[in-house]
Model the fold of this input.
Amino acid sequence: MLVANIQVSETPLVLYALRRADDALILGHRLSEWCGHAPMLEEDMALSNIALDLIGQARELYTYAAKAEGRDNDEDKLAYLRDVRQYRNLLLVEQPNGDFAQTLVRQFFYSAFADLYWRAMLNSRDATLAAIAAKSEKESAYHLRHASEWIIRLGDGTDESHARAQGAIDHLWAYTGEMFAVDDGERALIHAGIAIDPGALRGRWLTTLSDVIGEATLKLPQNDWMQQGGRSGRHSEHLGHLLSELQSMQRTFPGLTW
Amino acid sequence: MYTQALNTAETDDRGLEDAGKAAQFQARIDAEERIEPNDWMPAAYRKTLTRQISQHAHSEIVGMLPEGNWITRAPTLRRKAALLAKVQDECGHGLYLYAAAETLGSSREELVDAMLAGKAKYSSIFNYPTLTWADIGTIGWLVDGAAIMNQIPLCRCSYGPYARAMIRVCKEESFHQRQGYEIMLTLCRGSDEQKAMAQDALNRWWWPVLMMFGPPDATSQHSDTSTKWKIKRFSNDELRQKFVDATVPQAQYLGLTIPDSGMTQDTDGHWRYSEIDWTEFKQVLAGNGPCNRDRMAARRKAHDEGAWVREAAASYAAKRAQRQTAQAAE
Done:
């Protein structure tokens, strides 16, 4: 049957590109769910803009993953024909939008990392990844500024917005550790100068968080238990629902051109 | 996305503040001069335009919903990005048009409140559901196509801010229209199932799209005030006919059949369509279209659930202003 999942030869480089592509697609998809339903028109615009940037990043990374794999996969097969166990994104980005505070805290945690990550990746010895970094770095800087401004507004806004923002921070905090984890395959890429060591970014990431969250009169949680699994396909229950929607056309009408 | 010929015109000139000023105003219009926000204008001109521009803005915003319905299900990443960008454009048009309406003295909040209260209208076309991916192609091709037909003349509207807004909006709409047609072309060159999907979408959208141009000239209760003020330059039927003439060859090229068995071509080349079911149009305008309730509920939900966010932003802005004042005083 044509509807079957594709198989991907996950060499370290393919897997590396795939993980970042999945992060960008899933987060972009989540943000796109807001389009037409945001608290103000300016945020319909802004969230759609960020979603478009992320979907653009995902497309470049999928295309590169497919090229690195060297089979007949392409961006759409990688996005639409892998199931939940084959997806490699962070648990953080698949978490539901919740209210506006939850969406913006999720974005803030991710963008504060992505901003540092893509800037560091400018020095990748892999020319394609460095080129993707050059574009993504500019976009991520804007995403971080947008999210930071909202965290401050919500934290230092009304009692209700403060409580919602703090609730979102407490809820999502356990999903942030995964951004800094590295497995053996990635370690080899780091040694080769293709990837960067995310652990080295954690200090600066925490400084960004402390600065913004402090100004917002909010607090970082004390609990340092971190949930993991997304990178190896052990996801939360939310991702399957997202994929069933995202992939519905390709699953219903396999093998057609759209 | 689109403004509709609803009952926008004031019915007469009674109550014009000052006959001398009114004559001067009309002379400027007749000379094809643009009226700008700070210029004197009759109260009825202001009211007509506020209504028309805000209806247009509401249509853009409500129009995000039927297409937004497919953003999360677009069949490829390229289509997903293009659709998201398109719906975002509609939002931009809405913002731009609210700003144009604000130059006439009503705030965006007042205008939006009137829409949410059901007092202000938006285009009837957005009360139809998007059931398949072909609907996204059809909306781009036909709904945006009809919008362009209506909006090109508005680029020469006598009110400056509206005319300028339309120039920018039309450029984007024509891009959307080509994108929609390209979706249809892909479907029509695809499998039998895809072609059937395209034909089904055309069947469902054709008549509602013709209704977008508003009631027929013969039964229209409009005075010619909008025409005299050069807000409206072509009649509903003229625009509808132009649209049909432009669209029939496009459908033929796609290999699709216009769902009007009575359609004939005149010796002068015009495609004559059958009687439109105006009862349906009236029902949809009265709130009884397939999606009126859903569209209003979605906009109200976004508005209500976003209230705490807007309050937080306002509260933070006030605090910051207070701090800056305090700092300056030190």
User: Anything to note?
Assistant: The radius of gyration of chain A is 18 Å.
